[in-house]
Amino acid sequence: FETSILPYEDCCTVFTPRHPRTHPKLDDVMNELKKVDFDALFEEAYSTMTTEVKLIFPEYR
What is the pTM of this model? Predict the structure, then answer.
């Protein structure tokens, strides 16, 4: 408990922009999305993905 009540900067305060755009223009968003290589991102995600199976009923092993 003592550790959990200590003040700290969480990810919201660290990574949130100071002045976020809350009403972006669709054209601006679409232009930025064109810069992202989604195929490469998906390929990397799929090629490094692993599957892990965990038994929740250990008595059935």
Answer: 0.46
Residue among 52, 30, 49 nearest 41 (CA): 49
Domain count, the chain: 1
Print the domain residue range for 26.
1-39
Q: Token digits for 39?
A: 């195929």
- Is 32 part of a structural domain of the chain? yes
Question: Residue 41: what residue type?
Answer: L
Q: Where are the beta strands (DSSP E) in the chain?
A: none
Cα–Cα distance for residue pair 25/59, rounded to 1 Å: 57
What is the spatial distance between Cα 61 and Cα 20, in angstroms, rounded to a whole number?
51
pLDDT of residue 9: 73
